[in-house]
């Protein structure tokens, strides 16, 4: 059976669609596997039409540099409905979606609710625990990858970022199957160092036991932090 992977990236007006954040740009690259190797078979990129009154968070805009005038139909933007329709038309029963921050991107595409998602960010934490970081550009240079980059595009434009994620995914696929990457995307990660508070930067194994116990009692901890604390505090 032919399997395909659709690797995508979104650029948005803010972080939370439940609080009004809008999809501004989407790009994806499809990879197909016929039993020999993964091959790129097509790519798409679209700016999403928005009203002139669209509010773009300055922090988001400082990253992707998308202006309101770029989101007009006369400048080539298409409706969100049309972009999603095209994407759904390329999703087959065997399709797996891939994104570097799948939890984020999937929130802006609620229509895709039956296909599974690989998160290359989370999978990378399991596969390369010694990496200096897990942003897709950090992994690109640390792994010495040479992605097939689109002409005239720059980092944080959706098609550029997708191209980098494709190169990371292809590196992962040298030793892991898509199903294995799906499992890694869901497993909690054993964190090495703490990234906040008065002990920021220290190895978790070096933290005082009373601090670890206090931290575990705090509400709203994410799954990775809970897993890390439990692995240390277990009797």
Proportion of beta-strand residues: 15-25%
Quaternary structure state of the chains depicted: single chain
Could you tell me the radius of gyration in angstroms? 19 Å
- How far is the first residue's CA from the last residue's CA? 47 Å
If helices are DSSP runs of H or I spanning 4 or more residues, what is the number of helices?
A: 9
Structural class: alpha/beta
Give me the side-by-side strand order of the main sheet: 3-2-1-4-5
Helix content: 25-40%
Mean pLDDT: 95
- Any idea how many domains? 2
What is CATH's topology name of the largest domain? Nucleotidyltransferase, domain 5
Question: Architecture of the largest domain, according to CATH?
Answer: 2-Layer Sandwich
Number of strands: 5
User: By CATH's scheme, which homologous superfamily of the largest domain applies?
Assistant: Ribonuclease H-like superfamily/Ribonuclease H
**SSE ordering:** EEEHHEHEHHHHHH
The CATH top-level class label of the largest domain: Alpha Beta
Low-pLDDT windows of residues? none
What is the molecular shape?
A: globular
The major β-sheet equals: 5 strands, mixed
């Amino acid at each position: 059976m032919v399997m395909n992977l659709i690797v995508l990236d979104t650029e948005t007006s803010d972080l939370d669609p439940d609080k009004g954040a809008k999809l501004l740009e989407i790009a994806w690259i499809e990879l197909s596997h016929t039993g020999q190797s993964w091959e790129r078979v097509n790519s798409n990129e679209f700016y999403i039409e928005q009203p002139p009154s669209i509010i773009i968070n300055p922090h988001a805009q400082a990253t992707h540099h998308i202006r309101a005038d770029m989101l007009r139909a006369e400048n080539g933007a298409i409706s969100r409905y049309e972009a999603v329709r095209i994407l759904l038309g390329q999703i087959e029963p065997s399709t797996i979606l891939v994104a570097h921050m799948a939890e984020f991107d999937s929130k802006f595409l609620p229509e895709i609710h039956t296909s599974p998602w690989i998160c290359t960010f989370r999978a990378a934490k399991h596969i390369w625990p010694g990496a200096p970081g897990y942003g897709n550009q950090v992994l690109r240079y640390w792994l010495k990858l040479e992605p097939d980059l689109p002409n005239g595009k720059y980092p944080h434009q959706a098609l550029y970022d997708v191209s980098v994620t494709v190169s990371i995914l292809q590196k992962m696929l040298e030793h892991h199957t898509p199903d294995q990457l799906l499992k890694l995307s869901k497993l909690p990660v054993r964190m090495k160092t703490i990234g906040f508070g008065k002990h920021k930067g220290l190895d978790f194994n070096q933290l005082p036991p009373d601090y670890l116990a206090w931290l575990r009692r705090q509400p709203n901890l994410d799954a990775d932090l809970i897993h890390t604390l439990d692995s240390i505090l277990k009797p």
